[in-house]
Every structure is written in C-alpha cells, then in structure tokens.
Amino acid sequence: MKGRLPWLVMGAVLVVALVIGAQGRSGPMTEAQRVKHIASEIRCPTCRNQSAAESDAAAAKAVRDEIDRRVRAGQSDGEIVAFMVSRYGSDILLKPPSSGVASLVWALPVVAVVVALAGLAVAFRRWRARPNVEVSAEDRALVERELERERA
Amino acid sequence: MSESASDVDVVVSAPRRHTARWAAITLGVVLLLFVAVLATRKSAADKQAESPLLGKPAPSLTGTGLDGSQVSLAAMHGKWVVVNFMASWCVPCRDEHPELVKFSQRHEAAGDAAVLGVIFDDTEPNVRRFFDQLGGSWPVVSDPGGRTALDFGVRGPPESFLVDPNGFVVWKGIGQVDANGLDKLVTQGKARGA
Q: Quick count: other Cβ atoms within 10 Å of Cβ B76?
C-alpha cells in the first residue's frame, strides 16, 4: 500500500487538474466575447497558423465582421462555424474535426499514450520479476575456460 | 555437454532479436502506409482545387464595376463565367492576365463565356492602372470588406471559379489559369450538357 501511495496521489492530482481544466467559464458571454471566441477557432484564410481573432490581415477582419453579423442575427456558434466550413472546407478550423479520418489526430495520441503506459507496465513487471543473478563457481570456471581458449 | 561462447550468445539474444524483428516489420509497414497515403494525395500544385462550393449555386456577387456600372453574376446567367479574384500587387495575377485576355477575346463574338473580376484586398485606382497597362475589358468589381471573397472561400489571389450557365460552380482553380485550360473546361462542361 505504501508503495502505491505516490501513484494514488499523482492520479488524484491528475483527475482534479482535468476536472478544473474541463470546467467552462461561468456566466453567459457577451456578443463581443462570442465573436472573439468563435474567431479564435477559425483559421485566418490568408495566414496559415494564426486564428482570425489574432490576425490583422484583411481576410481575418472579413471573417470577424461576418461572425459579428451572424452573432447579431441570432445564429448559434455551431451555425456560424458550419457557414465558414461550407465556404472554405473543414481545414479553416484550427482544431481538426472530431469525426471522420481527421478524428485520428485526436485518437492516435491517446492510443500512443495507452500503448506506451502498457509497455512501461509490462517492462516494470518483468524487471521486478527477474531473479537476482548470482555468479556461480561453475560460471566463473566457464569464463576462465573461454578466456584461456582465447589466449591460446 | 559443453556449449561454445557463440552458442551461448545465440541462446541469450534470440528473444530480443525476435522483438527487434517485429518492431522493424511494424515500423516498415507504418512507413509504407505513410508513403502510400502521400503518394495517392493530390499534389499541392494541382490547379483543380477542392471547394465545398463545387456543384452548388454560386454565391451572390454584385457590385459596382470600375466604370461605375452595376455588375451582377446573376445577370450573366446563360454564359460560362470565370470569376477571377485578383490584385494588382499579385505577381501570378499579372502573369495570368494575358491568358484571361485571350480567353475573353476568343469568346467575345460567340458570347458563350466571359470573365468577371473581383478585387481582392486592393484599391480601385491600382486595379484600373493594372487594366490600363495589361488590357482586358471585362467587368471588375471591388469587394470592400472582403465579403465576396469570404462567400467564395478565397484564401488569396489569384483564385478562379468557373460558373456554368445555370449559375452552378463547376470548377475552382488556385493559382494562374491559362486560356486553353479554361477553354477545355468549358468544352467539357458543354459536352456534359450544362
């Protein structure tokens, strides 16, 4: 039990951190916050790795204006994102979609971590199960014989 | 029974070599799959580009032309229209322009196809100068705020869309176009009965 305590503590810390991280913001967002939030998920069309919320490019501003117009028209976040995808395709999203082939981007790291942890568990068990190796007189004699034969 | 040193080596390392062999085979298979996926993907240089608009009605496109007249894509129904997003600062736009002039002139008499330019992130005076230098008499509309570019999902000039006589987007090209390529697309479209 004593040996497992650090693992239990680490597990508890991980769960608490995940719960805190997964909790959304409290209270409804203002329209401006919603525009910024949606724009932060959309890739700036003319600059590869920046969001439309961060970029100063004219195309990014056009995206922000369009989101603003649609937020004011009462559309949901999902509807606005779907409109952007209907024009540019799914690669306009900074986060890959969680369905279809693109979902592999999310699934593969999880699979890799699980396989790595399983591998570590197997390796630890094997190392622990390995008996203490002691050199017997017979072993020493064998080595001596081989060394003698090398020298000859 | 006595074993030589090499026999002992073989016995001790056999399981490890077995694992290494499987690891190498797995890695090889993964690499082969990776190469196969890359080899079967369309080249980035391929001019035919993917677009969610393909096969769908073209977004509405209206505006004031450089000569002050009202321009509308809907008013051009019945013709094949090359909607060309361009800017005077864009070198490939400058390079493709003579090809658009050639395409436009070839179809002027028959009136079956035309070009419609849309200014992408540029000013009207700059584009007017561009046309004065390089020729071309098709309608060109400005796109203040970039809303038309957004409606067409344009990332940067030059990008062109071929709209059929019924107003459907049948082709999107990223980069320079050429007159013969556009003619071929129109001919293929006519053969399909659009």
A: 19
Q: Which tokens belong to A18?
A: 């995940």
CB contact under 8 A, B151 and A61: no
Tokens of B21: 């062999």
Distance from CA of A36 to the nearest CA of B (A): 18
Q: Considering only residues 82 to 101 of chain A, which have any Cβ-Cβ distance to chain B shorter than 8 Å? A: 85-89, 92
Q: A interface mutation test: which of B118, B120, B150 has the most A CBs within 10 A?
A: B150
pLDDT per residue as tens digits for the range A26-36: 678 899 999 99
What pLDDT was estimated at residue B4? 47
B37 touches chain A (CB under 8 A): no
Is pTM beyond 0.80? Reply is no
Tokens 């509405």: give the residue. B60
Q: What's the ipTM?
A: 0.71
Per-residue pLDDT for B7 more than 50? no
Q: Are A31 and B116 in contact (CB under 8 A)?
A: no
